[in-house]
Amino acid sequence: MTDPEEGEEEPRSEGDREGQAASDGATRSQPMRAFVLHPDIRTERSRRLPDLRLAEAVSLAAALPDMEIVGQEVVRLPRAQPGLLFGTGKVEELKARFKGLDVGLVLVDGPVSPVQQRNLEKEWGVKLLDRTGLILEIFADRARTREGVLQVELAALSYQRTRLVRAWTHLERQRGGLGFVGGPGETQIEADRRAIDEQVIRIRRQLDKVVKTRELHRASRRKVPFPIVALVGYTNAGKSTLFNRMTGADVLAKDMLFATLDPTMRGVTLPSGRKVILSDTVGFISDLPTQLVAAFRATLEEVLEADLILHVRDIAHPETAEQAADVAEILQSLGVKGATPQVEVWNKLDLVEGATHEQLLAQAAKSETIFALSALTGEGLPELLEAVSATFDEEKTERQLTLGFADGRRRAWLHAEGVVTGEAETEEGHRIDVRWTARQEKRFRDL
């Protein structure tokens, strides 16, 4: 008689088997050993420093579960090689390092073509992800709501469709077709593309329903006289921590890239007694994959509906100015209107010490649209809340100004204050339409 513990098990349901498999996988799985590379290509220099770009890529990799970063390197290249991205000597050198470190995954912080990915995986004997693939993996791991899951799936399918070449030679095999009429049947790669296209259509239909539901919610909110305040900013700038501090909510807030994917909205009562709706959105990042921008457009439409945008910046980050420029570009690409008032929130003031701390406070005090604070400690938050109240309480008037071409300082001030609604160049100078408060008008006249 077979011992019942060693014999055959009774038939189990599909769910039980999947649950057991997941449990077994959890007990047996080892962290994936990953190596991060940042190609610093001389012909494609960005405004970012390569070492800081590498550090951001390592942070992205660390945001994935069960990931152990065993090495990182900036690889300087005169130009990208079409077949292998790197030169053959560098490929061999890295192959030896990966073997010695027992690397199972290589993350390349930049675009890698399907052919380059296939060739490098073959040379190194490892799995390879480029920057887009890595961000997609993080989004797939983090999405929680139905909408978030659908958006990530749509972005992933758009990405996969361009990379069918990496599934090796089986994609060139032909199948189907009886062969009587002559001419080839459908190739595997064509069938795979068709299958992906069908999935994309299905997901888009489901997303359309979600978008319609979201639009109904927005329409019902418009009937309630509560302004919408949207938090935007670079990923890990501290938006969710600020959101929690302002609303008393308990949204996931971690020192991690893309901790928030699904938009969250809460009501907030400001010091003046006015109620507003605060919206926490997905963080932006440089070189955000176009597939993700398109897929998350429905979510980011909350920003387009906002009556006030709070641009949260990690003021302690060495590239805070570059991050702010990336956010501004994405907001512009989304079609955020110039008339929508924006306030800069210089967050993480608790990480800045001494003279720099005082300098930032003094600099912020000179502007009505900049507030330096720490969402973690609450320093500076009352002033921000007062300003948000004032934004909706103060009456605004519209004016048309004409500034001479030499009057660049006052023109720059108007743009910095976010009061410009339109601008045209004339023979006399710049004709500028503004919408401002009485206080802003007085400060402009005093310049």
From TrEMBL:
Keyword set, alphabetical order? Cytoplasm, GTP-binding, Magnesium, Metal-binding, Nucleotide-binding
* Pfam (any one): HflX_C
Region feature Disordered, mapped onto this chain: 1-35
Matching entries from HAMAP family are given as: GTPase_HflX
What is said about its interaction partners and assembly? Monomer. Associates with the 50S ribosomal subunit.
> What is this protein called in UniProt?
GTPase HflX
Domain Hflx-type G intervals: 227-396
Q: Where are the transmembrane segments?
A: none
Task: Tell me the gene name.
Answer: hflX
What the entry lists under InterPro entries is as follows: G_HFLX_dom, GTP-bd, GTP-bd_M, GTPase_HflX, GTPase_HflX_N, GTPase_HflX_N_sf, HflX_C, P-loop_NTPase
Give the protein's function.
GTPase that associates with the 50S ribosomal subunit and may have a role during protein synthesis or ribosome biogenesis.
Residue stretches of biased makeup (Basic and acidic residues):
10-19
Q: Which family does it belong to?
A: Belongs to the TRAFAC class OBG-HflX-like GTPase superfamily. HflX GTPase family.
Where does it localize? Cytoplasm
Which CDD domains does the entry mention? HflX (cd01878)
Keyword Acetylation belongs to the record: no
